[in-house]
Write a structure and sequence with these properties.
Layout: E1 8-11, H1 15-26, E2 31-35, E3 46-49, H2 51-54, H3 57-61, H4 65-72, E4 100-103, H5 104-112, E5 117-119, E6 123-129, E7 132-137, E8 142-145, E9 148-150, H6 157-162, E10 169-170, E11 173-183, H7 184-195, E12 200-205, E13 208-217, E14 221-231, H8 254-260, H9 270-273, H10 276-280, E15 284-287, E16 290-293, E17 303-305, E18 311-312, H11 320-338, H12 343-368
Helix pairs in contact: 1-5, 1-11
């Protein structure tokens, strides 16, 4: 087995970076992760995991499926396993009895175990050096490396530093997301009858798509997320702002609440969640449905990318978490078998699947909003 002389340096401790780090640890290959955010709190929301991505990970984690699901499921605290009922979706989805709703923060905490992670240490830039690349970190560190993995998401500083002209493809859809804490009595009386044991429910009203999902169930309350989305209108849509900056994601225009007030005839719990007066008092985010696909042009210099940093799919209809798991597992296996020199071939083999995935995610989001 060929091993790098220096640790694999992974930028980003999200699902992809953590999966890669955990797999490299299993293979005995040293790695260090650098994450700009502090270790907590992190990602307090639910994600859907598919068996095709999480089952191969169980051997790396040394866990059986029952234990794995119970530990990270959004209802695991109450003895659940993250059940999702396919019938709870408004449109056909790639979900079956082996898919489940996981709490992202708990999943990442599990992946963190045993890893060397430098929290609160962000990347400023990457530059070429005679013998590899140099990472310039925010804390003043200068780290030379022959193997750097950018796993820092769609807004990857690693990618921006090396390929600043890469642009997003913003899809013509409007999407808003928010969170709410629902007291247990209200959840049991108003929400639970509609969820029917599932952790996700959806509804269509014309071309509008409404989603309510469980983020975490506790004894006294249930944390939920909601999504409102629709196609962008053809002319002067005040809710479609494809050029908004990252910092403007929390700027919610009055037009959004006006549009929520036009939703009539909603049954519970959609009527309670999509109440304009309640939403005005909560923090919401304006999501952009973006894709990006780029081949690594600096592979020969030892800089690579995985997950959303190289093939981002839209939040709705995409499979970002599952793709990140697969990328992390497969890249670690490649490094363990062929060393750094095999990664370029791995990229070439994965590119068609990444391209196909983006195409399917764009089809899925269009289907969600079809009248």
């Amino acid at each position: 087995m060929r091993m790098p002389q220096t640790p694999v340096r992974i930028i980003g401790a999200g699902i992809g970076g953590l999966t890669l780090g955990r797999c490299l640890l299993k293979y005995g290959i040293p790695a260090v992760l650098y994450e700009r955010k502090p270790s907590s709190p992190r990602h307090d929301y639910g994600i859907t995991l598919y068996a095709s991505s999480y089952l191969p990970l169980l051997d790396i984690l040394g866990m059986d499926e029952f234990t794995f699901r119970r530990r990270i499921a959004v209802d695991g605290f109450l003895g659940g396993s993250g059940n999702i009922e396919p019938g709870s979706f408004a449109t056909p989805r790639r979900v079956n009895s082996t898919s489940f709703r996981a709490h992202r923060g708990k999943f990442e905490k599990l992946l963190c175990e045993g890893l060397d992670i430098q929290w609160g240490n962000s990347l400023e830039k990457v530059e070429e050096a005679p013998s590899g690349m140099i990472l310039h970190m925010q804390n003043g560190q200068k780290l030379e490396s022959t193997c750097i993995i950018g796993a820092d998401g769609p807004h990857s500083n690693t990618r921006k530093s090396l390929s600043p002209d890469t642009s997003f493809n913003v899809l013509p859809f409007v999407a808003f997301n928010g969170k709410r804490r629902v007291e247990r009595d209200l959840y049991d009386s108003l929400y639970a009858p509609a969820f029917k044991g599932s952790n996700v429910i959806e509804k269509k009203q014309g071309d509008m798509f409404l989603n309510i999902s469980i983020d975490e169930q506790q004894t006294d309350a249930v944390s939920i997320s909601w999504i409102f989305s629709r196609p962008a209108r053809r002319f002067n849509d005040p809710l479609h702002r494809p050029n908004r900056s990252v910092s403007e994601a929390a700027d919610i225009p009055k037009d959004f609440f006006d549009e929520i007030e036009t939703l009539h005839g909603l049954d519970q719990p959609f009527k309670d969640v999509f109440d304009a007066e309640k939403l005005r008092l909560e923090r919401a985010l304006h999501w952009l449905m973006r894709t990006v696909l780029e081949l690594c042009t600096l592979a020969n210099k030892g800089v690579f990318f995985i997950g959303d940093s190289v093939h981002a799919e839209p939040i709705l209809g995409g499979e970002g978490a599952n793709n990140a798991i697969v990328d992390g597992m497969e890249l670690a296996k490649c490094i363990s078998e062929f060393g750094q020199g095999g990664i370029t071939t791995w990229y070439d083999s994965r590119y068609p699947a990444w391209k196909d995935g983006i195409g399917k995610s764009e089809q899925a989001i269009a289907l969600m909003h079809r009248q």
